[in-house]
Amino acid sequence: MTPYLAGHARTSILVPALLCVLGGCAPDPAAPTRAVARAPAILPLRSLRLYETGVGYFERSGAASGRAITSLPVPAGHLDDALKSLVVLNAGAGGKVGGVAFASSVSRATARVRAGLPSDPDQAIGFRDLLASMKGEKVTIATRASRVPVAGRVIEVTHEIDEVALRAQSVRERKPGEGDGARPDPKRLTLTLTLIGDRGEVRVIEAADILEIQPADPAFRARLDAALDALSTRSAQNARAVQLLGDASGQITFGYIAETPIWRATYRLVQAADAKADAELQGWALVHNDTDERWAAVRLELVNGEPDSFLFPLAAPRYARRSLLHPDEPLSTLPQLQGTTADAMWGDHTDSVGHGGGGSIGYGSAEGHISGSHRVGVPSIRMGATSVSGTSVRPSSVLAVGNLAELVQASGVENGAFFTYALPGGFSLDSHASALVPFVSHRVRTETIALFASAGASARAAVRLVNTTGQTLPAGTIAVFGSAGFAGETTLDRLKPGERRFLQVGNDLDAEVTPKDAVRREESKRVTFQHDQLEEHFLATTELTWDLENRGGAARTFHVGMDVHRNAKITGTDRVDFDEAKGHPIAIFDAPPRKKTARTFTVVEGLSRATTLGSLASKPVHELAQRPSLPAAEVAVLAQAEPRIRDLEGEQARAAAAEKVASDIESDLERLREHMKALGGDKGGAGTAAGPLVKRVIDAEDRLDQARRNKETASREVEKKREAVREVLKRLASR
């Protein structure tokens, strides 16, 4: 039985401390599962899968015997997840599961309202609020004055004025000449409870005299318990028994998801003394058991994948809002003459005669982006990036020089949506404990290198890593160890089987690459026309010379990033690689120890230069038609297009002149109108000061109309000339 609520003197500190803390949801006291007396048997946890999205798949199985109650211990905060994902995998031989039962969840505000307490979850609850929640309830009270409990129903809880103390206060605080009126000090208000006994007697009991008070209705006590549960700081973490219904027998298996800490990966790369030898990659996973249950010999799987998951409020009862319909005339639920008379309602009207009175009822709701050869003056150049107004340079879709990205020998392969790492044997971990467990141990192909983002950039000590594990490696930190111990650390992004990464782990002070010379030449190969763009496809050949210096005592391999398009070929280097992550090729040079050498190599790119039809000029087209490397048929088309482009340029110049004339007339007309407005407008005749201005305005308007017609005519001629150019250029092959 629920114990008595203690007297005001003993509970004014304890009760608010229990009731005023924040919490989650509480069990609904009306749920029938609260009446289960015997503790249900917990279905053992057998398997657990942890996902990168912060959820875990829990699988429980065990023997069920007939109608024996079996339960799944789910924290209250995870109950919604469990209910929307619960799946029966095995219902036992010859048995069936009829459903699951659980104590309904209610919010803090709902639990407080049901217990008759203030609904604001942040409002403190005092002894007076507890007493007020019992209005209308039958209670038994033990007081200081009488050890014999008093039984009855609570009528009201009020603050009464201590008249004797008030009069004494008034006498002490009265000043000479003041009247006897005194306002009650709130400290002088006495909390009282009005009770009607079983025989109809009415008692007024001071709260300070109450030693114990016990509600007689068990349902009220259950509602108060629910409010306390809802306000508990651990209400969301407390286990909630989800009980299985039905007549299952034999082995039974259930699965469900619940919120879990994400598992994270961290790696160790242990290299051999030989810079090109395979290294040992160790992958460790950090897992956390944040439940109140110890994991004992659980089959643990770590899933490298991100299934969609969401939160959805499912466990707590929900109520729909209905429209309130009422009679057109407001009607009261109280008798009109209850506690009054018609005369009292009418009033005395001693000063005047009239009508008065009235009221209203309110309702509320809430809704919830050069031709020839030349020597480049700046040693460091950006390959294939030349552009001028109206012209853009990009990889050619016609000239195939090579695909540097094909240097990647193996590509990542995914086996399905997820990659699962199963830990061998049973995994055990205490509740609210964490562990670092190995999930990968494999030799991988590595090479220690000096990495340069570009020629002239500072060198970085790096490792070229190829994922030869056959497994997808999730993102994580990675610490690199070599013959000298710790070499540095960095992060590793998600890496599929066969993919490679360049891991930068520190600064390399003994390696340097300095650009020395660069000579570039272009050779036009094709001309095409499509989408109103004239495209010149050309080979850009750049001869580069770099100084390489290795100040170290061992031979080194320099990897230098190059800003070159994929449609290119690089010759003269020792090797070429491709950085998949950054999308650019890497020139590789073998650098002998303690030596400075000069290396010259060549880059050939297949590029295209596109010029829009509106930006075409006859001189560049004439120069393009003189290129001997272009096919004769395409040169012929360009030769036919050149005079038409010249005509177009002339018409465009005339259109621009017409545009300027119209604009000048508009400006002049606006100025004349302002002058005329200052002289009184257009009302003056020829003899007034405004007369000459009126004539000039009219002449300007006529000239503007003609200028606009000339402008429109010029625009139409421009479009005709442009269409003539377009018809000729269409003869160029578009592929």
| Biggest sheet layout | 10 strands, mixed
Number of helices: 11
Kindly report the average pLDDT value. Answer: 77
Cα(first) to Cα(last) distance is 90 Å
Structural class: alpha+beta
Gross morphology is: flat
Poorly predicted regions: 1-37, 233-237, 353-389, 408-415
Whole-angstrom Rg: 45 Å
Description of the molecule:
The structure is a single chain. The chain is α+β, with helices and mostly antiparallel strands and 735 residues long. Among the domains are: 375-615, no CATH class; 618-729. Helices cover 21% and strands 37% of the residues. Strands 17, 18, 24, 25, 26, 27, 28, 31, 33 and 34 form a ten-stranded mixed β-sheet that branches. Strands 4, 5, 7, 16, 19, 22 and 23 form a seven-stranded mixed β-sheet that branches. The chain has a six-stranded antiparallel β-sheet with strand order 1-14-10-11-12-13. Helix 4 runs antiparallel to helix 7 and helix 9 (618-625) runs antiparallel to helix 10 (632-678). The radius of gyration is 45 Å and the shape is flat. The termini are far apart. Residues 1-37, 233-237, 353-389 and 408-415 have low confidence and may be disordered.
